[in-house]
Amino acid sequence: MPDLVRTVSGRRLRVEVSGDPQGHPVFLLHGMPGSRVGPRPRPMYLYQRGARLITFDRPGYGGSDRRPGRRVVDVVEDVAAVADALELDRFAVAGRSGGAPHALACAALLPGRVTRAAALVCLAPRDAEGLDWFAGMTPFNVRDFHAAFTDPERYAAGIIPRSAAIRSNPARLLEELRSDLTDEDRLIVSDNSIRSMLLRNYHEALRTSPYGWIDDAIALTSPWGFDPAHIRVPVMLWHGAKDVFTPASHFSWLAARIPRARAVLEPKAAHFAALRALPDVLDWLLPGAPKG
Questions:
Q1: How far is CA 18 from CA 49, 175, 195, 254, 261, in A?
Q2: Both ends of the chain: CA-CA distance in Å?
Q3: 3-state SS of the chain: helix, strand, coil percent to 5?
Q4: How many other C-beta atoms are found inside a 10 Å radius of the C-beta of residue 51?
Q5: Are 202 and 233 spatial neighbours (Cβ–Cβ below 8 Å)?
């Protein structure tokens, strides 16, 4: 089983597979910053449910080559390349936070291969008609996303030293976010198992360069290259009503536009609660789950 996959253009993608080797394949697309080793259910949980979980570093993160100027829609080529290398015809796809729009891109552009898709705490497109994109968003994210959108060079200049500091001490990123976390989210990221996964994830994400993070933010605030309204495969949207990193208004906008989306809004949950929701979401993605 390959841990490095070459795309048609020759770029390398670092891949990891866990769970049941013969199980139903599910791609899990990581957050921002993130990597293939990001939080996911334990291998035994996946094995018991017949799930084969596939993760890979988006370009510029971890062990994957950078793709300058990439758009959200460009992930479709990479997912297809990994699926082809693993000889997978059909598969489900899920994404959390910065990975969620990328999961929707796969649902929109690979309808013959994607069985179901899930997007947890997902942003709406920056050009979403009728949406006040920054309303309800923490100043931390407003500052970063506004810079990525209006002045990418200035944004990159700020991320480069910040990335180096987080690489040497991954806990620094959680400390940066702490004042914007709800009490529940603080408990979640303080859990020893989850915290360990997050710190390993951040370190691996930024191990080789800051450009996965930089390119992600620019891609998320630029035109995505597809319309969520064109998605025809079954989709679950999961969101916490108290999320200030990705406000629930983004969830509502997407739920109103994706045909027949299963929309789950947890009234007391915030951003990191998506980590606890992931096992149930994965269950829904597997064959035999109800479509309602």
A1: 12, 30, 20, 30, 28
A2: 35
A3: 45, 15, 40
A4: 25
A5: no
C-alpha dihedral, 4 to 282 to 204 to 224, nearest 10°: 80
Per-residue model confidence as pLDDT tens digits over 16-65 = 999 999 999 999 999 999 999 999 999 999 999 999 999 999 999 999 99
The answer to whether the CB of 105 falls within 8 A of the CB of 224 is yes
Tokens 């990123």 correspond to what residue?
173
Contact criterion met (CB below 8 Å) for 212 and 203: no
Other CB atoms within 10 A of residue 161 CB: 10
pLDDT at 292: 53
114: tokens are 């994607």
Structure token digits, residue 125 = 């497109």
Q: Are 23 and 91 in contact (CB under 8 A)?
A: no
Give the pair of three-digit tokens for residue 217: 């933010």
Residues comprising the chain, all counted = 292
Strand partners, 266: 240
User: What digits encode the pLDDT tens for the residues 207-221?
Assistant: 999 999 999 999 999
Token digits of residue 189: 């990221």
Average pLDDT of the chain to the nearest whole number: 96
CA neighbor of 105 nearest in space, from 271, 275, 274, 219: 219
Two tokens, residue 252: 């509502």
Is residue 262 over pLDDT 80? yes
